[in-house]
Design a protein that fits this description.
- The protein is about 55% helix and about 10% strand.
- The protein contains 29 helices and 16 strands.
- The strands form four sheets. A seven-stranded mixed β-sheet has the order 7-6-10-11-12-15-16, with helices on both faces. A five-stranded parallel β-sheet has the order 2-1-3-4-5, with helices on both faces.
- Helix 4 (about 70-80) packs antiparallel against helix 5, helix 6 packs antiparallel against helix 7 (about 120-135) and helix 6 (about 105-120) packs parallel to helix 8.
- It is elongated.
- The two termini are about 50 Å apart.
């Protein structure tokens, strides 16, 4: 239960807002009043075990006093916070049986509803919420009860059960609310005639309830041009305590709502677009159920979400069976889109990320001799494997492929192995004690004087093939220039390894940047650093600048804060919501803009949408370019370079080039 909501209930229990005491006859006890205040403070401090004991003692004190029922109710609320739902239900039932006319009845039924919801006894929960609405006279509490019931009705109750509740309603507002929810479900399921009949019948009644205008608006909408729905499946966690996941899901939904609003207000919008939002609570059962319900609704042409790869995997068979396209904004596990033609991934999967980086390194940067160092964790290992495969397919030579475990602080063995592999692969010419005669021979062979001087200055060595070309070993022999022993030089850390063009370092966590950068530098491996998406951490890069300056890496997100389109979006978003958009706001905005760009006049079907999404190439979003053609996984990434304290974009690369 949210902290602000707890304060509302405590205010009610403490007598604020005109609440009547729970008993007509009671013994007033100053001691009980003080004990109750202490117990309430324990509850507010989230010390629920202590609160339970104090409230229980108060509720059993004799004679009955002014805090008897309030203490029992608060004990039940404390048990709810401790997730002891069955005990809380039993206590509340006993309270209603003992004091059936208590003025706390609305709050008691509401708390019962919350307990039943957590116990997944949704029909019991809905009946409790209805009783709470019918019993309470407090407008603030009533709004919270209605909110809980509406969420439950939207996600857990079908039209048949809602209609049964509607027929049993005794309160005008409750009857209208149940009619509204039943009609919405009927319309979603295609039972338009029944929905219209329910609304017409209700509107003829001689009363004006809170929900009357919503019934009229719903009927009016049905007379508008046909529209379509986009299902949204996110971990909003409305029934759980807020956390980072819930925050980013809300930010993403803000972006989607903004895009939907833009579409609705556009002059060319020929149809209504509705977001049907479902909360998964990061629960695979809830995610599957939400996707099943959305897939069963024929006017849902596309589903956005879930966010996490395991939930996408759990839902893939459903959307493939029901032929409804599902696009996950953030899932990155390999093979999800390969499960069927209706699954899309807006962010590149791990295999795609490695492939894209390899193509850029070889085709754009011209590197031919590579080494790979990667984490053994899934992200780094998967990206490194695909990088290696693509690099070799394109004709590059991968001379070493080393791994390190999670939280590694010492990668001495891996660095030495890379040194040995590099030096073994190419016989080298040492410049540590280069004679004047050999100096002149190299000049006559066409080697640039500046290059020779720089190698002599550092006492370095270089593969003969790198200095003299593909036939470097033969040329060195013909010039009678001695080639150094690789085995000897690999152990001498004063000899820099210069035979590797670039080393691809695939990490799982930006915290690994410091270990990798410093130790590769210590072991004198002189190569261009290449990285994966996890390198995009300006704080870590700045901290390790002396080691990793110049690193090039691929990123799935880049926000150009000077782009006119971005600046216009920020201005509009802030003017409507008063908030600064985040990365996840932009992701939500981009995914919905992508879908709506393929919706035409709004008459899109599931098959038309699926075909359209499958052909997307370089859709320009605010956070990324999106290419879904060639496998339904985004195959375009930003190429980034960190240089002298600044991360800047140097290009884009796609797997489909």
């Amino acid at each position: 239960m949210a902290r602000s909501l707890r304060h509302i209930f405590l205010a009610l229990l403490l007598g604020a807002g005109g609440i009547v005491l729970a008993q007509d006859a009671f013994h007033y006890s100053e001691v009980a009043e003080q004990q109750f205040a202490h117990a309430v403070s324990m509850f507010e401090e989230e010390k629920y075990n202590e609160a339970v004991q104090l409230f229980d003692s108060l509720s059993h004190q004799k004679p009955i006093h002014q805090r008897t029922t309030a203490a029992q109710l608060m004990e039940a609320k404390s048990l709810f916070q401790l997730k002891q739902y069955n005990r809380s239900v039993a206590l509340l039932d006993s309270l209603l049986e003992t004091y059936p006319y208590t003025s706390y009845a609305g709050d008691i039924h509401y708390t019962l509803g919350e307990n039943y919801t957590m116990l997944q006894r949704y029909q019991n929960a809905s009946r409790s919420f209805i009783k709470a609405m019918e019993a309470t006279n407090d407008s603030i509490l009533d709004r919270h009860i209605q909110k809980s019931f509406i969420l439950l009705a939207d996600q857990r109750l079908d039209a048949v059960f809602l209609n049964q509740l509607r027929l049993q309603a005794t309160h005008e507002d409750v009857g209208d609310l149940l009619t509204l929810k039943t009609a919405e479900k009927d319309l979603r399921d295609g039972h338009t005639a029944h929905a219209r009949a329910l609304i017409d019948e209700r509107l003829k009644l001689p009363h004006h309830s809170t929900y009357g205008k919503f019934l009229a608006a719903l009927l009016s909408k049905e007379n508008e041009p046909a529209g379509f729905k986009i299902g949204v499946v996110l971990p909003l966690m409305t029934r759980s305590s807020g956390n980072g996941v819930a925050a980013l899901a809300k930010e993403m939904l803000d972006g989607m709502n903004f895009a939907a609003g833009e579409y609705a207000s556009a002059a060319h919008a020929a149809a209504r677009v509705t977001l049907d939002v479902r909360d998964t609570e990061r629960d695979s059962v809830l995610a599957v159920r939400a996707v099943q319900e959305l897939s069963a609704s024929k006017d849902v042409v596309c589903i956005v979400g879930p966010l996490f790869s395991n939930l996408v995997s759990a839902c893939a068979s459903i959307v493939n069976r029901e032929h409804v396209p599902l696009i996950s904004p953030t899932a990155t596990t390999n093979g999800l889109a390969a499960s069927g033609r209706y699954v899309f991934q807006m962010h590149p999967d791990f295999a795609t990320r490695g492939t894209i980086m390899a193509r850029y390194a070889i085709r754009e940067m011209g590197y031919r001799t590579l080494a790979i160092l990667s984490s053994t964790e899934p992200i780094g290992a998967s990206v490194a494997e695909s990088f290696s495969g693509e690099a070799q397919r394109l004709g590059a030579r991968v001379i070493a492929m080393e791994t390190f475990p999670r939280n590694a602080n010492d990668i001495r063995e891996q660095c030495m192995s890379i040194r040995r592999s590099a030096l073994d692969a190419y016989p080298t010419i040492s410049f540590a004690k280069l004679s004047r005669t050999d100096f002149d021979k190299l000049l006559k062979a066409g080697v640039n004087r500046r290059r020779i001087d720089s190698l002599v200055a550092v006492g370095g060595s270089i593969p003969a093939t790198k200095l003299l070309g593909p036939q470097g070993v033969r040329i060195a022999d013909s010039l009678r220039i001695k080639l150094s022993s690789p085995a000897t030089e690999s152990e001498n850390l004063n000899v820099p390894v210069t035979s590797i063009d670039a080393i691809f370092v695939a990490i799982d966590d930006a915290e690994e940047i410091g270990v990798i950068g410093s130790q590769l530098n210590y072991f004198n491996i002189k190569a261009q650093f290449l990285g994966n998406n996890e390198w995009y951490d300006p704080t870590q890069l700045d901290a390790q600048k002396q080691y990793v300056n110049g690193v090039v890496f691929a990123s799935d997100t880049y926000i150009d804060e000077h782009d006119p389109h971005y600046l216009s979006f920020v201005q509009s978003f802030r003017s409507t919501g008063g908030k600064q958009p985040t990365k996840y706001t932009l992701i939500g905005y981009d995914v919905l803009k992508l879908i709506l760009s393929q919706a035409g006049g709004g008459q899109s079907s599931r098959e038309v949408m699926t075909d359209a999404l499958s052909k997307i190439r370089e859709f320009k979003g605010l956070h990324s370019s999106i290419t879904l053609s060639g496998g339904r996984v985004n195959s375009t990434m930003h190429m980034m370079k960190y240089s002298n304290g600044e991360v800047r974009k140097i290009g884009e690369s796609t797997r489909n080039d």
